[in-house]
Amino acid sequence: MNCFRALSIAALGVACLGCSSSEDAKEPEQPSSTTALDLVDVKTNPDDYTWFDFRPNVKKLILAGDAESEHIAILWYTVTDGAVGLHYHGQTESVYVIDGTQTDAKGTYPTGTVYFNPPGSGHQISDSSGFFLLAYSAPPDFTNTDAIEEYEPVRIDTEDPEMISAYPFEDDGSGVETFLAPLVDGGGLRAEFMKLGSDAEYDFDGNYLLVLEGGCVVDGEPYGEDMLVVTRGIAPESFVVGTSDEGSCLALGVSF
């Protein structure tokens, strides 16, 4: 089965049964440049997706980009004490814990945590389990581990009920509050949290949007919690983000 189960019929280019003649037919719709993915379905039905073996007992699902270059992917530890050997990050690494825990020398990251390792960082992962959403502006380097420097990750708990007050969200006066994660300039990634009230809209340029809370509308399509909208290519896309009938939306956007 194709890993992107949420593709629309138009995006797949399936012919329409009972369509009018070519003389009366409408112009064909352009294939969508984004894909919507239900992260609950990924963790519930992982075998329905197309993974490749990344390391022993660790599989990777490439969502955009290429495994040998910058990319967005989901990592799956197929055993409860999964591990990845020591590796170096020449650019910023972004990790969102979909389900489970990830452990390295800097601590343990539970479900709902997003953390960012800066350029020059590196770690060995141990005692980990579950599923993780990754964004790499450069793939992990298992060769040049001598280049690893001292660092501290930027760590954010997206399940903190006081998250909006705990971090310096800025209110633009139109019902939109935003917070830029304090990442290293030149690290290849930008991450922004956005909280939208009823009827608010926000323009975001990036590579993926993850709905953390409430209901979001992205380019006119409604998405609930744990839905991921990801670009097909590695170039950032323009998204118009709004709210659904639930009245509020909290989302994380990441951009190369």
Question: TL;DR of this structure?
Answer:
The protein has 256 residues and is mostly beta strands. It has 2 domains: 34-157, Jelly Rolls; 163-255, Jelly Rolls, CATH 2.60.120. The strands form 3 sheets. Strands 2, 3, 4, 5, 6, 7, 8 and 9 form an 8-stranded antiparallel beta sheet that branches.
Keywords, separated by commas or semicolons:
single chain, 256 residues, mainly beta, Jelly Rolls, 2 domains, eight-stranded antiparallel beta sheet, disordered N terminus
SSE run: HEHEEEEEEEEHEEEEEEEEEE
Reading off the top of the CATH hierarchy, the class of the largest domain is best stated as Mainly Beta
Oligomer: single chain
Shape annotation? globular
Averaged pLDDT, please? Answer: 88
* Named CATH architecture of the largest domain: Sandwich
Count of helical regions:
3
Radius of gyration: 19 Å
Enter the CATH topology name of the largest domain.
Jelly Rolls
Task: Outline the low-pLDDT stretches.
Answer: 1-31
Topology, number of strands: 19
**What share of the residues lie within helices?**
under 10%
Gap from first CA to last CA: 29 Å
* Percentage beta strand: over 45%
Q: Give the count of structural domains.
A: 2
Biggest beta sheet attributes:
8 strands, antiparallel
Description:
- This protein is mainly β and 256 residues long.
- It folds into two domains: 34-157, Jelly Rolls; 163-255, Jelly Rolls, CATH 2.60.120.10.
- It is built from three helices and 19 strands.
- It has helices at residues 9-12, 39-44, 163-166; strands spanning 34-38, 52-55, 58-65, 71-89, 93-104, 107-110, 113-117, 121-136, 154-157, 170-171, 176-180, 190-196, 202-206, 208-214, 216-218, 221-223, 227-231, 237-243, 249-255.
- Strands 2, 3, 4, 5, 6, 7, 8 and 9 form an eight-stranded antiparallel sheet that branches. A seven-stranded antiparallel sheet has the order 1-17-14-19-12-11-10. A four-stranded antiparallel sheet has the order 13-18-15-16, with no helix packed on it.
- The longest helix is centred in the first third of the chain and has 6 residues, at 39-44.
- The protein is globular.
- The model is unreliable at 1-31 (pLDDT under 50).
